[in-house]
Amino acid sequence: MGSMVPRLLAFVLLLATTVAQNITVPAALNGVEGGGSTSIPFGSNLACRIQCIYDAEELPWTGPRVITGLLLRADNNVLNTAIAAKGYLDISVLMSTTDKSSSSASPTFADNRGTDATWVMTHQMILLPAQPVMGTAPRPANIPFVFQVPWAYGLTPATGGLPAPTNLLVEIHVHSQPSGVYRIDNLSGCTATQSSFGLSGLACKPALGTNVTLGGDASMLAGNPYSWQLANAEPSMPFLLTMNLSNTGGLAGNPAWPLPYPMFDPANPSLPSPALAGLGWPAPDCYLNIDPVVALGGVIDASGSGVVTAPLPAGRQFVGMTMYTQALVFSPTANPLRFISSRGFASTVCGPLGAVRIWSFYNAAATPPAPEPTSGSLQYGSGFVFDVM
Known about the structure:
By secondary structure, the chain is mostly beta strands. The chain has two domains: 4-190 and 352-388, no CATH class; 194-348, S-adenosyl-L-methionine-dependent methyltransferases (Single Sheet), CATH 2.20.130.20. 5% of the residues lie in helices and 38% in strands. It contains two helices and 23 strands. It is elongated and about 85 Å long.
């Protein structure tokens, strides 16, 4: 009787996890389009074997969870593009926990499976549904793989003989499929959340130009170089890219100088504002939208553009960190201060996410049939996006 207590406890915990809504893996892509798309494994007439491993940190749950199916997401990186239905495909799915991670996965499929590896679908005929034109991303996760056998993630320590809840492995076998392309949402990097903020008035521009604009790379990965781009500046002029991890509060930490802070006296634009009185001259209609902590320099090119590239700190702990920036550009005829400012630009570190995929296409319809591959190509930072059921 005593041995049943931990099993009953595990059962209660598992029931508790089933009341949640469908949840996205990786968690950071809940409501966010992946940074790429892929035709693997559904973009060919060949059979395919693919494994995707997700580090436990990418899962939006902790502890035990019963999974009764997967809902994959079709790609929508190119908005307003429909995807035709494709079917029928002969599909099998295996689920497992694994001690392999996104950085230690093996190209040999068997090496990545844990002791709890379970076939949850075997030779099921699946129709990949048509995807209508959508002007926003991402698409709903509506490609259902309903398990024939529910699978429980992370039963230990309530039961013995299973690995501790670690990383998640999803393995899909496409035994056969008709020809045709069907792209699904894929990590392959990530798309950073970006926005402009603050002020830059109509007069804060070169004498014969328009307001300077500031933007950045679409993907922002911790540990990788990231570039900010300026446009509409005067050619051959030096500039500063100022940075902070906040765009709130006051200039120099003084609440009496709240951001955005004018680079002129609003009561008399011919004078500098109190905080900048030491500069001696004003920049009417220009504002400091952040309290600068770090500044990087550059020179505008002949087309009026400028680029600053800097390495981002490495480590998954920086995913979700937002960097706030603003450009200050020398402009000898724009105003008495001879500087103009852009609006602020915010970009959030979105990766790298802890995922890896291993895949191989093969011709199962050949005579004689090609054998099912035992290893495949390995790609770090990549994997399909799905909801769990």
